[in-house]
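Hey L., structure's done. Input below.
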Amino acid sequence: MNAADGRVAMLKKLEEYDLIILTMVVVLTCFGVVMVYSASSIMAEKRFHDSFFFLKRQAVFAVLGFVVMYIVYCHADRLPFLA
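Output:
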């Protein structure tokens, strides 16, 4: 096994870790959004006449967070403060 094969194996292993971490982040974010809905639906119904008000708001910010995370992930090599 030469050095190039070792690097390829290491990169595949890192890709697996990235997928595991991404899956955990998505699952925890979804769980958090459900908890926000569970905790705030009654208050949102009373104040805003929409029990999904905080759920929608939290979902929008979660999606924005995933977009920013994706941009940083794709361009991390070009961002000097991440080096």
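The chain has a mean pLDDT of 84. DSSP finds two helices and no strands in the chain.

-- N.
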